């Protein structure tokens, strides 16, 4: 599975900063399923549609994980806006995920 | 598409795998986020860069129902014909099965030429195309993980009557003509499965002829996309307008119009060959239902 969610069109529609996120998972393994549920809830609740989330199954696309330097799954990477950031695990720690994504409330 | 040299290690119970995991864990920096997440039980898999493996942790492996070492009768084979073989039959054939990665556009068989290898697709898709003077053609068969390329050997004919061209690249197993013929003589299961498959191929070919005459291009495009999706086991795949026009025997402009109409109805997205099915039920309703008929047929077989 390599699935894309969110509203990437926002990048050209307006001034909203779109968070480009990639979640590397291992199929339907328990932590991977949990991570997908958690990140979708976080995006829905906190990012107001301004995100482009791609879910990459390393069992199908291992080369993509290796190209990105991923060591374990699940791993969430924030590709944009810079600086890039990573969160490892099932993403149940919402404040930590928001800090990595860099929502306005968490930025300095 | 996965690279052929990468593999998923489906067991961590064996001593070798235990050693691999321990070795990989030692490489993680003390107190690193990865190590903390592993200790918290939040990790499903670890990637072994030196071995180019994805190694599943036990809970993940159990959840994915992959067999542990020694549990399987034979290694899981992602091709229906090979998977139907008994353990003994498979073991006899296995040493001669060669795993190959086929690039899109590769021609496996040409009409009138001897068949050197038969192919069992895993996640690639092969079009069967009769050729006429001038190079024009139209697809009469589509082979995915459900079948095999080179079925005429089972009927005692070792010359291909069709061009077999890789439509969507991916993995397959191949075996030489001589080994396959010998395996066929030794295996009643393979004979039986191939008979059923050839019957399905024949019926599909007749249905395709009917479809081409009676159904609208948009319906045929929808059917073809559903058939492709079923055979590559994904809602996303790469297919160019040229190749679709070629296999359906229509002009490229007709494909552009049909794909545009399906996009406007939000059934698919299609950009530069990257196709994604957004609404499967809607696409089925938009298709000419030849897809459903053929699918039922292969299940009955």
SS class of chain B = alpha+beta
Low-confidence stretches of chain B: 1-15, 67-76
> Which series of helices and strands of chain B comes N to C?
EHHEEHHHEEEEEEEHHHEHHEEHH
In quaternary terms, these chains amount to heterodimer
The average pLDDT value of chain A, as a whole number, equals 80
Shape of chain B: globular
- Summarize the biggest pleated sheet of chain B: 4 strands, antiparallel
Percent of residues in beta strands of chain A: 25-35%
Question: What is the gyration radius of chain A calculated from CA atoms?
Answer: 13 Å
Give me the CATH fold name of the largest domain in chain B.
Jelly Rolls
| Amount of helix of chain A | 25-40%
- CATH uppermost class of the largest domain in chain B: Mainly Beta
Q: Helix content range of the residues of chain B, please?
A: 40-55%
Report how far the terminal alpha carbons of chain B are from each other.
29 Å
Top keywords for this entry?
heterodimer; A: alpha+beta; Glutaredoxin; 6 strands; B: 301 residues; alpha+beta; Jelly Rolls; Arc Repressor Mutant, subunit A; four-stranded antiparallel β-sheet; three-stranded mixed β-sheet; globular
Task: Show the helix and strand layout.
The complex is a heterodimer of chains A (108) and B (301).
Chain A: E1 2-6, H1 10-13, E2 19-25, H2 30-46, E3 51-57, H3 62-67, E4 72-73, E5 75-80, E6 85-88, H4 94-101
Parallel strand pairs in A: 2-3
Antiparallel strand pairs in A: 1-3, 2-5, 5-6
Chain B: E1 7-9, H1 15-27, H2 33-39, E2 45-48, E3 53-56, H3 58-63, H4 80-83, H5 87-93, E4 98-102, E5 107-109, E6 117-121, E7 125-129, E8 141-143, E9 163-168, E10 170-176, H6 177-186, H7 188-214, H8 217-232, E11 236-238, H9 241-248, H10 252-264, E12 268-271, E13 274-277, H11 280-286, H12 290-300
Parallel strand pairs in B: 1-3
Antiparallel strand pairs in B: 2-3, 4-10, 5-9, 6-10, 7-8, 7-9, 11-13, 12-13
Helix pairs in contact in B: 7-12, 8-10, 8-11, 8-12, 9-10
């Amino acid at each position: 599975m390599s699935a894309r969610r969110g509203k990437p069109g926002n990048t050209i529609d307006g001034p909203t900063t779109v968070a480009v996120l990639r979640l590397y998972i291992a199929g339907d393994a328990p932590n991977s399923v949990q991570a997908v549920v958690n990140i979708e809830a976080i995006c829905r609740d906190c990012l107001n549609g301004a995100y482009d989330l791609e879910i990459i199954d390393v069992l199908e696309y291992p080369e993509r994980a290796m190209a990105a330097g991923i060591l374990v799954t699940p791993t969430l990477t924030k590709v944009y806006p810079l600086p890039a950031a990573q969160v490892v695990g099932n993403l149940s720690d919402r404040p930590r995920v928001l800090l990595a994504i860099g929502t306005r409330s968490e930025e300095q | 598409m996965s690279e052929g040299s990468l593999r998923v290690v489906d067991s961590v119970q064996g001593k070798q795998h235990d050693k691999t995991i321990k070795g990989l864990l030692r490489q993680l920096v003390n107190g690193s986020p990865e190590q903390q997440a592993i200790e918290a039980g939040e990790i499903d898999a670890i990637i072994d860069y030196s071995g180019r493996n994805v190694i599943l942790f036990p809970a993940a492996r159990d959840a994915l129902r992959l067999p542990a070492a020694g549990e399987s009768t034979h290694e899981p084979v992602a091709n229906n014909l090979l998977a139907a073989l008994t353990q003994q039959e498979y073991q006899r054939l296995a040493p001669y099965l060669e795993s190959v990665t086929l690039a899109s556009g590769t021609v496996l068989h040409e009409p009138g030429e001897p068949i050197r290898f038969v192919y069992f697709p895993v996640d690639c898709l092969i079009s069967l195309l009769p050729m006429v003077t001038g190079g024009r053609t139209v697809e009469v068969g589509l082979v995915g993980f459900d079948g095999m390329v080179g079925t005429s050997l089972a009927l005692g004919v070792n010359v291909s009557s069709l061009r077999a061209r890789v439509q969507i690249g991916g993995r397959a197993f191949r075996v030489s003509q001589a080994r396959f013929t010998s395996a066929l003589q030794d295996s009643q299961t393979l004979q039986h499965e191939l008979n059923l498959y050839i019957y399905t191929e024949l019926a599909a070919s007749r249905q395709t002829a009917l479809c081409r005459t009676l159904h609208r291009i948009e319906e045929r495009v929808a059917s073809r996309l559903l058939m492709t999706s079923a055979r590559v086991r994904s809602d996303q795949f790469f297919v160019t307008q040229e190749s679709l026009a070629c296999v359906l025997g229509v002009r490229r402009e007709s494909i552009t119009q049909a794909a545009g109409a399906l996009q406007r109805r939000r059934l698919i997205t299609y950009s530069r060959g990257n196709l994604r099915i957004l609404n499967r039920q809607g696409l089925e309703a938009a298709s000419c239902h030849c897809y459903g008929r053929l699918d039922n047929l292969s299940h009955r077989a």
